[in-house]
């Protein structure tokens, strides 16, 4: 997965971001305490290699890797052109002259605020080769001293392809010419231990993730708005998914996507970036991989199911969200989506302190097998993974073989889906449903950080007022799904463009009242049998009443301007 943010712009913003020296010392102490204290009797076997090492070396890092994650954890931001050596008593940096301007603050901290137990050293690598070799020799000597004094190896992280830039190329050439390349090629891989250390998030890390989720909401709002424009267009666009993806990337590059949103005073939107190119799929061609461009050239049919998957990062911390949008769905498709919602509520209730990751996976799968056995074979092989600076921790995932135990303040991308379901209107086609949210694990369950619309009435759209359908649902005890002609009308604006839609082949199915009522009854039975005893409120987003009041204050229509536009659009369609 690759970030689609402009790398030069992002690097420039990183270099401008000052390093918080007090945060660095506090986080370094926390790492060292974990390193020392959990050497024996740990319930996480993955830490064994980390505990056996006398030091840790961090090189330059690609985005979404553990090396980058540990850099950000310690310094508050990624480090460019920098190598780090960490021991239980010291931290040494080999860096470029540009990065040295920021790192020197770690050495020159006032004496009363420094930790005299930890020695911090910054070695500057000049541009000239001779002076650069002396600097690299000094850093290499520090690494070798660890092994000589402790008899232990220095561990490293192997996550992704090596960085190839001038700084790292010079370092690798220096190691080769010194005959020391094996010092790193044979070093223990401590990735699993670092995964355990970084899994539970600090308060600041959680706040950054919450901002990233809010930014994902802005993106999703723009996508929904454009989908409605496409539905209301007389012309059949043949690149619906590609157009939506291009729109998001263009707005992101212009910087306009974040404008108008309400952020807290300490939030700087210029540190927000796309995690990956938005994945928007339709036309019976679906692929859960985030890099997929499946469906990019599909036209919007009269009836359609669209999957939208996107994510943003704020100050390197990622969010992950996906939503399903349904146009003129069949009642059986609605019933399946209702069950997907119930399944997510169930998953959120069991993702809590002490639950095994593999046991969560099996519990979700068992529920599907019991309540809707015909859907079990359509489940994914994983229901998500740990989330932070690294996008998807392979050592912490909701899979059958992951024996890690969930702990409070872990953040997950919880992703549930049913794929390759038979289309009830066209037997030669299939459709998929997907629901992904960023969730924070708590003692009695998880809470959703990506609080975006997902109820059936919020993601389902009908071209004409389905009176018989609404009557059937009211008799069934359900509120009717949102349709063109319903919603909170706002008549202070006008709607541009056409409001009639040419119906394609998929709209020619009969929708009689008896069929709708029968399907609605079946749907009620499915919902009543599958609704879990939810042990947590999935809409709860803070433990403090003051914080809840503040958040609720920010949650009006202004946060979701799409609803106002939808209201005007749907009200106009009612009179067509």
UniProtKB/TrEMBL annotation:
Keywords: Chromosome, DNA damage, DNA repair, DNA replication, Nucleus, Transcription, Transcription regulation. One of its GO terms (molecular function) is nucleosome binding. It is found in: Nucleus; Chromosome. InterPro entries: Creatin/AminoP/Spt16_N (IPR029149), Creatinase/aminopeptidase-like (IPR036005), FACT-SPT16_Nlobe (IPR029148), Pept_M24 (IPR000994), Spt16 (IPR040258). Residues 470-559 are annotated as: Disordered. GO terms for cellular component: FACT complex. It holds the Pfam family FACT-Spt16_Nlob. Residues 19-194 form the FACT complex subunit SPT16 N-terminal lobe domain. One of its GO terms (biological process) is transcription elongation by RNA polymerase II. Component of the FACT complex, a general chromatin factor that acts to reorganize nucleosomes. The FACT complex is involved in multiple processes that require DNA as a template such as mRNA elongation, DNA replication and DNA repair. During transcription elongation the FACT complex acts as a histone chaperone that both destabilizes and restores nucleosomal structure. Belongs to the peptidase M24 family. SPT16 subfamily. Component of the FACT complex. PANTHER family: CDC68 RELATED (PTHR13980), FACT COMPLEX SUBUNIT SPT16 (PTHR13980:SF15). This is FACT complex subunit.
